[in-house]
Design brief:
InterPro entries: Polyketide_cyclase/dehydratase, START-like_dom_sf. The protein has 157 residues and is an alpha+beta fold. It is 29% helix and 39% strand. It contains 4 helices and 7 strands, in the order E-H-H-E-E-E-E-E-E-H-H. Helix 1 crosses helix 4.
Length: 157
């Protein structure tokens, strides 16, 4: 990772990494990932997601969403179009779960390799890291499957 790249907290009690090859362009995958307001259409476990900052997505843009029963406010810390997207935010407020999430897109043949990694820290995670680890592993793998299906369907149509 370059010195100017933001990343997950490698020392957090919970870290998860997953990847998948998607038969779609980086542009298609990027458009799906960054259209926060439509996450609920392809991620049904997210009942609410809305970008709060007007204008183009950029470092400092804020979005609010809910997942796993938590209300989350996240801020983008890195936006490299069609390459890398990093956000961090708290679920359940500043004494809740601090998540740092990275999406990376790398050309792969006729498609793109999509990698995602996330770290969880905070008092709730410290109290039950095994449950948070299992939940995060399941969630990230599911999100990648759904992203692959959504992007490949968009490419086929």
């Amino acid at each position: 990772m370059d010195a100017d790249e933001a990343g997950i907290d490698e020392s957090a009690p919970v870290v998860s990494r997953h990847s998948v090859t998607v038969a779609a362009s980086a542009d298609t995958v990027w458009r799906i990932l960054t259209d926060i307001d439509t996450w609920t259409t392809w991620l049904p476990e997210i009942p609410y997601a809305r970008i709060e900052t007007p204008g183009p997505l950029a470092s400092g843009s804020v979005f609010r969403w809910s997942a796993a029963g938590m209300e989350i406010e996240s801020t983008f810390v890195q936006v490299w179009p069609q390459e890398r997207l990093v956000w961090r935010g708290y679920g359940g407020g500043p004494d809740g779960v601090l998540g740092v999430h990275v999406w990376a897109l790398t050309p792969a043949g006729d498609g793109v390799e999509v990698s995602t990694e996330e770290s969880f820290a905070g008092p709730p995670v410290d109290a039950d890291p095994a449950t948070f680890q299992a939940g995060l592993d399941t969630t990230l793998a599911m999100w990648l499957r759904r992203l692959k299906t959504t992007a490949e369907a968009a490419t086929a149509s």
